[in-house]
Amino acid sequence: MRIAIGSDHAGFPLKERIKRFLVDKGHEVIDFGTTSQNSTHYPLFAREVSLAVQKGEAERGILVCGTGIGMSITANKFKGVRAALCFNEYMARMSRLHNDANVLCLGDRVLGEDLALSIVEVWLETPFEGGRHAKRVELIREIESGCP
Ligand code: RB5
User: Fold this and answer.
1) I want to staple 4 with a disulfide (CB 3.0 to 4.6 A). Which of 41, 61, 104, 136 is the partner?
2) Is the model's pTM score more than 0.85?
3) Does the annotation mark 98 as catalytic?
4) 41 tagged catalytic
5) pLDDT at res. 148
């Protein structure tokens, strides 16, 4: 899978760890930065990853900041992006099964490394269930298309 990834300074260590994990699993990773723990601004990276997913340049996106909150708020401003902030494997699984989430947001300051990687693994492996959930995702699209 081709996966776009990005973080701010707070998410940088976990972003680097996730990148290695993904490459080891055979995924293609497009890294939009940041490149160090020097202070920066999470919307810059959420924007790049969200645009890559929106344009189909990446199948999925992963964003990491301190809590994951700023990344999820920003990513969900982009049409076609369904960003899910996940704290555990259950949320990761449900975000795929029911919401067809195409961007995963994680918080470096609130997750241990092993848990974060386990969330990523579950999120990548779980398919969208479709059926009644497809109707609900379609309703999201309709709302999006009418948004100012
Ligand atoms: C940075 O200090 C922090 O605010 C940011 O990483 C993120 O947690 C925002 O939602």
Assistant:
1) 61
2) yes
3) yes
4) no
5) 73
